[in-house]
Amino acid sequence: MRKLFCTLLLSAATTTFFAQTKTEKFVDNLLAKMTLEEKIGQLNQYNGDWGATGKITPDGDKESQIKQGKVGSMLNVTGVDKTRKLQELAMQSRLHIPLLFGQDVIHGFRTTFPIPLGETASWDLALIEKSAHVAATEAAAYGIHWTFAPMVDVARDPRWGRVMEGAGEDTYLGSKVAIARVKGFQGNGLGNVDAVMACAKHFAAYGAAVGGRDYNSVDMSLRQLNETYLPPFKAAVDAGAATLMNSFNDINGVPATGNRYILREKLKKEWGFKGFVVSDWGSIGEMIPHGFAKDGYDAALKAITAGSDMDMESRCYRDHLKQLVADGKVPVALIDDAVKRILLKKYELGLFDDPYRFCNEERQKAQENNIENRKFAREVGAKSIVLLKNDAVKGQPLLPLSAENKTIALIGPFMKATIANHGFWSIAFPDDSTRIVSQYDGIAHRSNGQSSIVYAKGCNVNDSDRSGFAEAIEAAQKADVVVMSLGEAHDMSGEAKSRSSIRIPGVQEELLKAICATGKPVVLLVNAGRPLVFEWASDNVPAILYTWWLGTEAGNSIADVLFGDYNPSGKLPMSFPRTEGQIPIYYNHYNTGRPAKDDADKLYVSAYIDLDNSPKYAFGYGLSYTHFDISNLRLSSDKMAVRGGKIGVTVDVKNTGNYDGEEVVQLYIRDLVGSVVRPVKELKGFKKIFLKKGEATSVSFQLTPDDLKFYNNEVQLVNEAGEYNVFVGNSSQASLAGHFSLVN
Length: 744
Ligand code: NOJ
What we know:
Layout: H1 2-17, H2 22-33, H3 36-42, E1 44-47, H4 62-67, E2 73-75, H5 80-90, E3 100-103, H6 116-120, H7 125-141, E4 146-147, H8 171-186, E5 199-203, H9 222-229, H10 231-238, E6 243-246, E7 250-251, E8 254-255, H11 260-270, E9 276-278, H12 287-290, H13 296-306, E10 311-312, H14 316-326, H15 332-348, H16 361-366, H17 371-384, E11 386-390, E12 392-393, E13 396-397, E14 407-411, H18 439-447, E15 452-456, H19 469-478, E16 481-487, H20 508-516, E17 522-527, H21 535-540, E18 543-546, H22 554-562, E19 628-635, E20 639-641, E21 647-655, E22 661-671, E23 682-691, E24 696-703, E25 710-711, E26 717-718, E27 722-729, E28 736-743
Parallel strand pairs: 1-2, 1-10, 2-3, 3-4, 5-6, 6-9, 14-15, 14-16, 16-17, 17-18, 20-28
Antiparallel strand pairs: 7-8, 11-18, 12-13, 19-21, 21-24, 22-23, 22-27, 25-26, 27-28
The structure holds 1-deoxynojirimycin.
1-deoxynojirimycin binds at residues 53, 75, 104, 148, 201, 280-281, 495.
């Protein structure tokens, strides 16, 4: 504690010695006027009237606490009238310190976009940045200052329901997407009325919960933590993320909320993070059931000491910090540091100039139903869809749907659904179904005049009612082609939505089999927030589109892809297992001492005797209506110097099919021998390109020693001279290879 106290004093002295910025001067002056109670007030965040994702602590009259300066921030208060009302109360407090309004703006706000995992499948960073910016613009117009996003947890276990909120299994892709989302939310910088503070969460390693069970423990080496799980957070911090949120889990026995190693040592010291850390919902108090804190007093002590600055909903700071100071357990300097971080952000947002600057009714009105944003959501939706399979039927790939289909049958419980297209975490207007384009409407509208439509729901998402089967079979029999929309309900993935079986629930697959038995060609749309297991469908249905949950414009985005107005280009951000028995499954695993050479090789090698090792669909995989040939890999040199070296990697890409289209060209490396074993492949670059049919181009990447660094057994980030393979292709199964050496 004494060491921490000295560090804090030293950093305060350093700031005073060197020229203070105008902001710091303002904040220091304000801090000097604050009583201890007022300081502690800034560290409290209370929930509004809705949106609880945990126990709400009953505490009487929030409004009078706001007036007394006992609350620093509110979450889940939406709309300028409501935020204005509470801000007016805060303005009645002695020092008139404005409130911060935070909310989970995870994939859009008025206009919803594909769930983050789905949007990541676009591998289009500019698109992802723009969608975050649109969400920020809409949320800010509704009085929000701060989104609890992006979720940057690397996740390799699809049983974990929260995979839908992140960027999937890969550290490199996840870091790039984290940067794009932070930049998108924070736009041209805090202080602009279309920018909200980003919050990289959940710090840290939440995605590695044992067994994929939400809130569960995490046990991993520090090397793994640093190499795989922390880099997206570091990328978000370097991109300027204003805040981070604790995760619920413990890491190697120490809850993240009370974890000095990740909060003080890594985040605040090593990475120089200047923003603040908010706890997750009640996570300070949850250190008691974890068995890490004796009571609220102990929990507050451990959280503030570790570096958690703001208490979301547990009230441990409110109830115990004052006593902890009086008892000499918590130095005021520690509280000052946390308060200062929060006040700095309020200042940067411009709230001290005008606490109501995000309370503008006209701006709110303009974002109620912004047509440009909806058009953009339609584009993002189409670009997030992944074509998993497109077999020929009567000599032609089934997709895109041809004009020769006189009758199309639309079948399945998702066809006419509206809210389901939102997916989980569309919490601002959860029941507003009026603006959502259903899949039925999107497809029927697009096919207008070209084909006639027959419809049958067939079954519900998750029960055993087969009474609609006969009608669905009859509809299929009348049609030339069937489009079936199946999947998991939108509240089956997300927080607290872990599943032990990740199959398409209820009797939906049974319905699919019955429809396939009619002999009509079937296109399957899979609605889901995670990779699902659907082996029978993969083996028997000719065309499959993975549509995630696409948001407000879902129906139009799906129609665009079905009819070929947009040629699908999505690539999977997670490996899709054949069955749950393969989980966790990820492409960048180690080789082991007894690698299987292929799926048939099972004798005394690292394999299952009853299951293949390979995924059903690999990370980075996704088809197009056209075909891209990737060839002629060449390196600018076969040696890279550790100091200042670089190597150019170039391939030729040709669109050899019948449609214009986009391809994601992916570069992977393999470090052949290291002081610790290295993954069989690691993504180190990707480029999304557009080629007209028949067109060719070359695509180049540059590798530097930084791309080859890894954490050694002493948890130091190092380069080691040695041999490397490089692969380029259009999935993690890329086999076009080159070779180079890293030399000292
Ligand atoms: C709990 C979730 O874990 C977190 O992601 C979310 O931001 C908070 N609840 C607030 O809703």
